[in-house]
């Protein structure tokens, strides 16, 4: 197991680069498809909706000090069920690697080299990722520090150069279709911005000195990435309008083509480079989290021996993970929310409630309490269980109502 420790600034840059990832280029169109010209409102309020989930993740780390998500699941649900749930999370991590690699390869094939096979781009990224992880998490963390400044500078540069193309009328009317489309957009964006941060629980507890002291850096990285995403979203609406933003696959890339300031033109390569930097960090974090979880499930000593064989499998899978663009859009807007929502919303809350129930039962069994205290304890356990059921049911009910 990789016992290297990363500092707070590296946590900040990892979270920021990871969160920027897919959102600044391709997810904006999905948000606009739900909320139209109100997509900027979605990008503004979604970080606030995601904040409670981050608090839950750190509360989990406080309840189970020094344990990764795999260890927590096995401790709460037992060896067998905990291992099954852990395997599910590892599968989602590896699936996400193939998805992100596909996004990059498909973008390059569509926008730049149409005659080049998809696997050529995917192979290049997989090799770069595997080499980085061979050197360990510290290599990826240091790379993210460098990439953070590059990504931030380039994104802000594109935003500033695009200001002359802004059309304020594209923002109106506000909330024309009511609040439901905005809530749908928030749920969709949250599944790409806040919920995926649960994968940091797969390794952060063993790769930082004190996970509670990294909370501020974690939050700063999350909100900085959300701020950049908000800027890209509102600029896409202001320049392209809601209809074009929803119809194009890469709105941020498209608005960069609109830049024409004196001799400064054709700067879309800036967006491409910054996006690929952030996606490299994102795919590396997913892969590392999956490897750490896989290693813990099989009780292996070193994850590095598994990098090459799993990389080959993921490379093959990256070319077939999405049969076509229509299937990709359907999966990203429906199935992905359910997959990551179970891991990042339902499971953590259930873990906390199960932990409280176990502690309550242990208290009843070990402490000498009178009859009234016994009744109060059992009643509290009942209400905790009822709350767990309501929370889980509410998640799927909200998802059903917003479809």
Automatic annotation (TrEMBL):
Transmembrane regions listed in the UniProt entry: 12-34, 40-60, 80-105, 117-137, 146-167, 187-208, 220-244, 273-294, 306-323, 335-354, 381-402
Protein family (similarity comment): Belongs to the amino acid-polyamine-organocation (APC) superfamily. Spore germination protein (SGP) (TC 2.A.3.9) family.
Gene Ontology process terms (BP): spore germination
Main localization category: membrane
UniProt name for this protein: Spore germination protein YndE
Membrane topology annotation: Multi-pass membrane protein
Keywords: Germination, Membrane, Transmembrane, Transmembrane helix, Transport
Compartments where located: Membrane
Gene3D superfamilies, per the entry: Amino acid/polyamine transporter I
Database matches in InterPro entries: Spore_GerAB (IPR004761)
Taxon lineage: Bacteria, Bacillati, Bacillota, Clostridia, Eubacteriales
